[in-house]
Amino acid sequence: MTEAFIALGSNLGDARGQVLRAFDALAGLAHTRLIERSPLYLTPPWGVVDQPAFINAVAHIDTALSPHDLLDALLGIERAAGRVRDGERWGPRTLDLDVLHLDGVTLSDERLTLPHPRIAERAFVLLPLHDLAPDLVLPGQGRVADLLARVDSAGCERVP
């Protein structure tokens, strides 16, 4: 089993419900165990700013899936939630799942880069990741707590 962290986000429909159902779907993946869920955060959009705010979170899992099999499983969860990938980046979505980090794995190919290359820029990822693993060191990027200290997290609020 390999320890991994998955980012979850939604800003269409019942965004909170979509993220909570995605946690359940992650817990139900074959050869995978959900270890811990972060708190939910309400966060401003990133990239394309003319869209609704997001609900974001991070899941901590153990998995025996290969990186690409895990990616395929996440894409399946997104499709089941109604996600349509139309080529638009950073736009509104029913559900977005990203592999952030797999312990001991660094890779970069046409489908997947690990660790996720933009973690250090994104408070909406770093806040919930920090709740679960503040001392996690991301290869080539640094320690999560240090990365969080460098980003602007204004407008990001923990959801009760």
In round numbers, the mean pLDDT is 93
* Major sheet: 6 strands, antiparallel
Overall, the morphology is: globular
How many discrete structural domains? 1
DSSP helix count? 4
> How much of the polypeptide forms β-strand, as a percent range?
25-35%
Supply the helix-strand structural class.
alpha+beta
Looking at the overall shape, the CATH architecture is: 2-Layer Sandwich
Model regions low in confidence, pLDDT < 50 over at least 5 residues? none
Under CATH, the homologous superfamily reads: 7,8-Dihydro-6-hydroxymethylpterin-pyrophosphokinase HPPK
Supply the CATH class.
Alpha Beta
What is the percent of helical residues?
A: 25-40%
Strand tally:
10
- The string of secondary-structure elements, in order, is EHEEEHEEEHEEHE
User: What is the CATH topology assignment?
Assistant: Alpha-Beta Plaits
Plain-language structure description:
- It is a single chain.
- This protein has a single domain (2-158), classed as 7,8-Dihydro-6-hydroxymethylpterin-pyrophosphokinase HPPK (Alpha-Beta Plaits).
- The strands form three sheets. Strands 1, 2, 3, 4, 5 and 10 form a six-stranded antiparallel beta sheet that branches.
- It is an alpha+beta fold.
- The mean pLDDT is 93.
- The longest helix is centred in the middle third of the chain and has 14 residues, at 67-80.
- It has helices at 15-27, 67-80, 123-132, 144-149, and strands spanning 2-10, 32-37, 41-43, 54-63, 96-102, 107-108, 113-114, 137-138, 142-143, 157-158.
